[in-house]
Design a protein that fits this description.
One of its GO terms (molecular function) is ATP binding. This is Nucleoside ABC transporter ATP-binding protein. InterPro entries: AAA+_ATPase (IPR003593), ABC_carbohydrate_import_ATPase (IPR050107), ABC_transporter-like_ATP-bd (IPR003439), ABC_transporter-like_CS (IPR017871), P-loop_NTPase (IPR027417). Keywords: ATP-binding, Cell membrane, Membrane, Nucleotide-binding, Repeat, Translocase, Transport. By secondary structure, this protein is an alpha/beta fold. The chain is built from 17 helices and 22 strands. The protein has helices at residues 45-52, 75-80, 98-103, 114-127, 143-156, 173-188, 200-206, 229-237, 296-303, 326-331, 341-345, 352-356, 374-387, 404-416, 434-449, 461-467, 490-499; strands spanning 5-16, 19-30, 34-38, 60-65, 68-69, 83-86, 161-165, 192-196, 209-214, 217-223, 255-265, 271-281, 284-289, 311-316, 319-320, 334-337, 367-368, 371-372, 422-426, 453-458, 470-475, 478-483. The strands form 5 sheets. The protein has a 6-stranded mixed beta sheet, with helices on both faces. The longest helix has 16 residues, at 173-188.
Length: 503
């Protein structure tokens, strides 16, 4: 029996200005399959799926849905053709209930029977194994529950083609497993599912087929059972990934960063970090594992002097920072790579040279008398571009035009070249492709190996397990446990993140 094709994209092309982002791309989705879409940043994955979701209209090629040609001019056209897209950042109204979010903009009648709608949605959710309370408000829900609402919203409107963009980015291992169980049930009921992701391990776990894009073109479509991670990486970046140098550090008991009974408040005045204590030794990477919003941001900002410490103290090389300003803390040996690259780390309208001297302009090595040595600084910038393989056409152009990976390399390059005693890396690879992720993590390991104390904050537990020498699991702004990677499992850390104890 011939498999039913839900989607056929033939010779798809899309350009922005004079640049083709997708060129002659072929893509097919069958009923009952989970199809992973892989590629580096800028490979054209999101653009291709945005064409399928009606966000963009292709400039070349043909789109067939359920065997018939479809011309999509909006997401509304897409949903009418059975296509739903679940974005990485959810499109929900926090102060409405689950059922109200699901029917919002869909039900056409003026008067609604809330009880009947809630019962209808509950039965519908049980059909697909999507356990929710239709009457619960969204602001009460976990990230995993919100994602289920988004999936239900698409299914309730008739979608049998689902696109999920980085669906596990902020999920715990338990929530990821639940999501994969749900997706498999949906596929078994005849849905076709596309997952855009950077997580190779998850691709190998959930996908039936995998399509790889490189530089806007299709590199190939393969069956999952016929490839391994190494082969997929080669398809994505055109070469084999190098083996990472892992546990070759010199063991030391000398402490570089101390967090002593620290309490910190968030922007709304509520306690975000409560009585937290741990340390990071020189030549060690300590990973912070926790669901987003559990005090990671506030802790990092407090260490950098950007947020007040309510109680306790933080020490760098045994010297307290509580009464010091950010400039003084930098001079103590701190480098900080914030999660908001453009908002906090870099200035988009400045060129790479000016961004690289943001911390150095007042130091002697960047000045001659009262004047900045622009020529010398520019030469240093060229060295950074070469050393960190930053792809930039014009060194004098504003950096806002660069990709996320190149921006992160500029930021890391600036911070690492300071030879810091303590380095805080908050979500350093969020949104980056596999090749750039590997390069960033290698830079962190180099810092650890030269004796820097590295605090690594991430949502990816697999990489936390792989990179860290110790892991601090946090829940509700408190330390739920401190463990070594070789003495625990991802599941145990996930349980600590969820309820503060090993299950």
């Amino acid at each position: 029996m011939k498999e039913k094709r839900l989607v056929s994209m033939k010779g798809i092309g899309k350009k922005f200005g004079d640049k083709w982002v997708n060129e002659q791309v072929e893509f097919e989705l069958r009923a009952g399959e989970i199809h992973a879409l892989l590629g580096e940043n800028g490979a054209g994955k999101s653009t291709l799926m945005n064409i399928l979701a009606g966000v963009y209209k292709q400039d070349a090629g043909q789109l067939l849905l359920h065997g018939k040609e479809a011309i999509l001019t909006s997401p509304k056209d897409a949903i009418q053709n059975g296509v739903g897209m679940i974005h990485q950042h959810f499109k929900l109204v926090e102060n409405l209930t689950a059922s109200e979010n699901i029917i919002l903009g869909y039900k056409k009648t003026f008067f609604l029977n809330r009880k009947n709608i809630s019962e209808e949605i509950l039965k519908f959710s049980q059909k697909y194994g999507l356990s929710i309370n239709p009457n619960d408000y969204v602001y009460h829900m976990s990230v995993g529950e919100k994602q289920r609402i988004e999936i239900l919203k698409a299914l309730y409107r008739g979608a049998d083609i689902l696109i999920l963009d980085e669906p596990t980015a902020v999920l715990t291992p338990q929530e990821t497993k639940e999501l994969f169980d749900i997706l498999r049930k949906m596929a078994d009921r005849g849905c076709g599912i596309v997952i855009i992701t950077h997580k190779m391990k998850e691709v190998m776990e959930i996908a039936d087929r995998i399509t790889v894009l490189r530089k806007g073109r299709k590199e190939g479509t393969v069956l999952k059972r016929e490839v391994d991670e190494q082969r997929l990486t080669e398809m994505m970046i055109g070469k084999y990934a190098s083996e990472r140098k892992m546990k070759d550090r010199q063991v030391t008991n000398e402490v570089g960063l101390e967090i002593e009974n620290v309490t910190i408040k968030n922007d709304k005045g509520f306690v975000a970090v409560e009585n937290m204590s741990f340390d990071v030794k020189k030549g060690e990477i300590v990973g912070i594992a926790g669901i987003s919003g559990n005090g990671q941001k506030e802790l990092a900002e407090a260490i950098a002097g950007l947020r007040e410490i309510e109680k306790g103290n933080i020490k760098i090389d045994h010297e307290g920072i509580k009464e010091k300003n950010p400039r003084q803390i930098i001079d103590m040996g701190l480098s900080y790579v914030p999660e908001d690259r453009m908002g906090m780390g870099l200035v988009g309208n400045m060129d790479i040279t000016d961004n690289l001297i943001l911390k150095d302009y007042r130091k002697k090595k960047a000045r001659k008398g009262i004047f900045i040595q622009k020529k010398k600084v520019r030469e240093n910038a060229k060295d950074v571009i070469d050393q960190f393989e930053i792809k930039i056409e014009n060194i004098d152009a504003p950096i806002r035009t660069l990709s996320g990976g190149n921006l992160q390399k500029i930021l890391l390059g600036r911070e690492i070249l300071e030879d810091p005693k303590v380095l805080i890396a908050a979500y350093p690879v969020r949104g980056l492709d596999i090749a750039t992720t590997e390069a960033v993590y290698d830079l962190l390991l180099e810092q650890r190996n030269r004796g820097c104390a590295v605090l690594f904050i991430s949502e990816d537990l697999d990489y936390i397990m792989q990179l860290s020498d110790r892991i601090v699991a946090i829940e509700g702004g408190k330390v739920a446990g401190i463990v070594k990677p070789d003495e625990t499992t991802v599941e145990e850390i996930g349980m600590m993140m969820l309820d503060g104890q090993v299950g």
